[in-house]
Specification:
The structure is a homodimer. Chain A is of the alpha/beta class. Chain A contains 16 helices and 11 strands. The radius of gyration of chain A is 19 Å and the shape is globular. Chains A and B meet through helix 3, strand 3, helix 4, helix 6 and strand 8 of A and helix 3, strand 3, helix 4, helix 6 and strand 8 of B.
Chain lengths: 397, 397
Amino acid sequence: MRDVFVAGAFMTRFGRHFDRGLGSLAREAAEGALRDAGASPEAVEFVAFGNAAAGILTGQEMIRAQTALAGSGLEGAPMINVENACASASSAFHLAFNAVRSGQHDVALAVGAEKMNVDDRNLANVALARAVDVEELVADQGDSVLTEGAGPLFMEIYAGFARDYMGMSGATRHDLAAAAAKNRFHGSLNPNAQFRQAVSAEEVLASRMIVDPLTLFMCSPISDGAAALVLGTREAAQKAGGPLVRVRASAVRTGRKQGPDDAVPRAAAKAYEAGGIGPEDIDVIELHDAAIPAEFIVLEELGVAADGEAAGLLHDGATRLGGRVPVNPSGGLLSRGHPIGATGTGQLVELADQLRGRAGKRQVEGARIALAENAGGILGGGSAVAVVTLLERMHAS
Amino acid sequence: MRDVFVAGAFMTRFGRHFDRGLGSLAREAAEGALRDAGASPEAVEFVAFGNAAAGILTGQEMIRAQTALAGSGLEGAPMINVENACASASSAFHLAFNAVRSGQHDVALAVGAEKMNVDDRNLANVALARAVDVEELVADQGDSVLTEGAGPLFMEIYAGFARDYMGMSGATRHDLAAAAAKNRFHGSLNPNAQFRQAVSAEEVLASRMIVDPLTLFMCSPISDGAAALVLGTREAAQKAGGPLVRVRASAVRTGRKQGPDDAVPRAAAKAYEAGGIGPEDIDVIELHDAAIPAEFIVLEELGVAADGEAAGLLHDGATRLGGRVPVNPSGGLLSRGHPIGATGTGQLVELADQLRGRAGKRQVEGARIALAENAGGILGGGSAVAVVTLLERMHAS
């Protein structure tokens, strides 16, 4: 085994790209990451391509990477299509990491791409209903879920999480709104974010109710976008110039159920063990706030906040830019957007930029160790998949 | 990097399993492979799950492994969902191989599973139309291909290959029929095959015309099934007992176009280079005869037959059981069946059994080096994906 480094990173702006297809977004991200790495497409020896919803949204199954990346100059490389619901892109990153770490390949590319805004505005809901056990869902709601979707299914699930969390911790609606407002403020500083307007906690509370207690501004939007990273050996990364960022650990776990057996705490435990560090060592976090209660719940699952104490960290300013451990400096899924199969690499591009001092107005000063948490699907009441990745800026040598 | 061995291998019978779902098939294969390896599900550290068509055929996208393998005891492991059209399962095998080779994991499981026979008999065609560039197909044939399919699309493509090959090589319809009859004979000896009745070349020619010059018995059927392999370190494989089978190489390539740039010759060249051997060293082959011309074309792309000479090998008896290099001793896709996302691991289970001397009446005596060729999808007139794997029986040590 050898160390693996980020040689290049790039993302498209996340948002509504009505005039662009999956391939256009994926190629922009892949080409941007290669340009950042100073590498030609021909240098890429392995491509892992994360996408979750194109099967439903565009009809393309089976050879998503090969069609999306046609004409990119990458056609010579092995391409692997990876699906893991909203954790597809970080799963692809995991495979690219393994490919370099194993010594099999010197340069690997992880791409996450998703195109969700299509003419039929309900089709994104139809796709999202495939991120749970479909057989169970059909048994419960009938065959129509396959063609009509199940409404705001994930927001109903997250609303349940929010109610449970509020009951357990004493957190209030205003606490949820304040966390959302914090992420909206971060997003206002991010040129790649879908939403770039800061809002107050009061405005979050006053926005349209989606599923009680979640209002519109507490829920991630329907987004299009792509994000890619070039991984390589130390030599490949040094060639690219700039501060060296090492992949300290990548851990994927499948869910068993809610609670300590949930995929998120289990993936975090594995990443901490593999990385030889603990939650106290993390300087900056991107986490999977598909809806706002996740920010509190995941901070506790990661061990960054004690049980029931995550809202306290927010009110102390610890999780805000300038605080001890800024959370979602990109704006998170809530403000940066959530093109589901691209979100994982979107988080990692943000963190690579943070560690390389390229995050502009949202820069976390002096950040050395970064954690990304990306979750996908629901099974047995918990996340079906979770991926926790640790990145580390190396000292100049 | 370290050597990787097959610790266990198992497949369901391929065929029409009208009363069983994807999960039932996948779990039977996974449990069988674990039993063969003498390993518990808890020992598995990584699962790569190949499936191509469940998104269309069952509605389940995104978390296919997690739903199919729920209740198997494997829920603790990382699961990665892999799609690569008809090469999905060998792509999953490639990832499991990498996971062990890298030292990241000591025991990995590759599963391929597909359930194609469903109440709506046309749905398999609807799914297969997703293994080409869907945007191009829709532009050509209209939106209805997304719901109605494009008829025997792949058999039309293979019929074109057959006509081109016959024109180039001078091979005749009777040559094609003789190759199909050879594989039907092999399949008659395989208890896991979908079709177990030998037929003559004359019967192949007399069967119903699908797309000229391909008759029914020259085309692979619609199948259900699953096949799994446990990969591990030398220690893990020794624990299982029996002859040791090493994975000598695994190469994945994406297609550029037909001819020497096609994915199959490029994957073969890479596998030979990584394995340090050539086509003359191969003792037994499983190749992707989705329709019969592929047997001739691929033997030439692999360098086992000279250009235009593959039919000669057949008539010499070289590719028949008992010959110099038996091809498709399992019966191939034609007789064993072609559950598309399971075919790649189906080939590898057959070859592992051949190398371990467990192939019963279809045993290739003394086989030491085996090659599997698995191809998927069509892009630019050639295979979108090809995977070539080399397995090797180790001398007792």
